[in-house]
Design goal:
This protein has about 300 residues and is an alpha/beta fold. Helices cover about 30% and strands about 15% of the residues. α2 packs across α4. About 35% of the residues are buried. The N terminus is likely disordered. It binds NADPH dihydro-nicotinamide-adenine-dinucleotide phosphate and oxalic acid. The site of oxalic acid has 6 residues, from loops.
Length: about 300
């Protein structure tokens, strides 16, 4: 973005890098998931804005982000609603046995299948932030038993909240469905691995809507093949798109999606980006700031 007068808001865009003019003029960068080596080339950089809610792609280049530069992310109710809907969709698809009903329909069989009542199902949500918190409230509102896990203690009405690594085993043990909505950080990389999956209830179903790096993929395949887990719905994978020979493509109990659970909606996200650009100009504190030390 070029440093120009703020009239009108969107006129400040400098252009799409590398056609963004002189690097001396750039004081803010809007970034997504691409190599960010060039950030170090902007001596006047003051603000880096992630086009997504997650910032792991920027944190990977943190060493190139000069001290004092602020990182912001998207916090948008339209994104939150999409995420909660996606989590509900795959959770209910599993719990209400949609796959079996589709098969029965194709076979023209009019049969009733047994499914659990919401009150008898425990749903555990890893991450109780903007997205996990909403998911917890909505799923709890539908009558499911909801548990939530976060880094620091949280309180959400109707949700049994636990925090800290030492509570993770106790947290996972009763869950019939585990939904991951954690940020990807040093602490959460590979958090869903053979050991933690062994703490899960036999027959639990895993939903990952956060980042592929949370799951040790070969451990997940093994846990499902061993019968420990019933299956998984994964919006994200370690390599996106997955290579053709990735085992997830072929596994009958794994359903993958191309990272579409919650997209950044330009109409609803642009105002907060414009607002931070305005604040850059006026010196007011930015909104939706990421804590660079925590990494989220
Ligand atoms: P927030 O920062 O609002 O919430 C993060 C939550 O995770 C907080 O409750 C936080 O705890 C908890 N947490 C962080 N580190 C740990 C830890 N080490 N142990 C336990 N809990 C931890 O993030 P959002 O809810 O906005 O987003 C979550 C993630 O969802 C994003 O980082 C992104 O990766 C992913 N995402 C995926 C999308 C998709 O389409 N698939 C779309 C958008 C986001 P505390 O409350 O104590 O801070
Ligand atoms: C995000 C995402 O972090 O889309 O916003 O994954």
């Amino acid at each position: 973005m070029r440093r120009r007068a703020w009239t009108p808001p969107l006129s400040v865009w400098g252009g799409i890098h590398p056609d963004s003019g002189s690097s001396e003029d750039i004081d803010a960068a809007l970034v997504w998931n691409h190599p960010l080596d060039d950030l170090a080339r902007f001596p006047r950089l003051r603000l880096v804005m992630s086009l997504g809610a997650g910032v792991d792609h920027v944190m990977a280049f943190r060493h190139l982000v000069p001290d004092g530069v602020v990182l912001t992310r998207i916090v948008d109710p339209a994104m939150t609603a999409q995420m909660t809907c996606w989590c509900l969709m795959v959770m209910l698809d599993h719990l209400r046995r949609m796959e079996d009903y589709r098969r029965l329909h194709r076979e023209r069989r009019y049969e009733e299948l047994e499914v659990p009542l919401p009150r008898d199902v425990t749903v555990g949500i890893l991450g109780l932030g903007v997205l996990g918190g909403d998911c917890a409230r909505v799923i709890g509102g539908m009558g499911y038993q909801v548990m939530g896990w976060s880094r620091s203690p949280r309180h959400i009405d109707g949700v049994t909240c636990q925090s800290g690594l030492e509570a993770l085993e106790r947290f996972l043990a009763p869950c019939d469905v585990v939904i991951c909505l954690l940020p990807l950080t040093r602490e959460t990389e590979g958090i869903l691995n053979a050991r933690t999956m062994s703490w899960m209830k036999k027959g639990a179903f895993l939903i990952n809507a956060a980042r592929g790096g949370h799951v040790v993929e070969e451990d997940l395949v093994r846990a499902i093949d061993d019968g420990r887990l019933a299956g998984a719905a994964l919006d994200v994978q370690r390599q996106e798109p997955m290579p053709d020979d990735h085992p997830f493509w072929y596994h009958p109990k794994i359903l993958t999606f191309p990272h579409i659970a919650a997209l950044t909606v330009p109409e609803t996200s642009a105002p907060q980006i414009a607002e931070n650009c305005r604040r850059l100009h006026t010196g007011e504190p930015f909104i939706n700031i990421v804590d660079l030390d925590r990494g989220y």
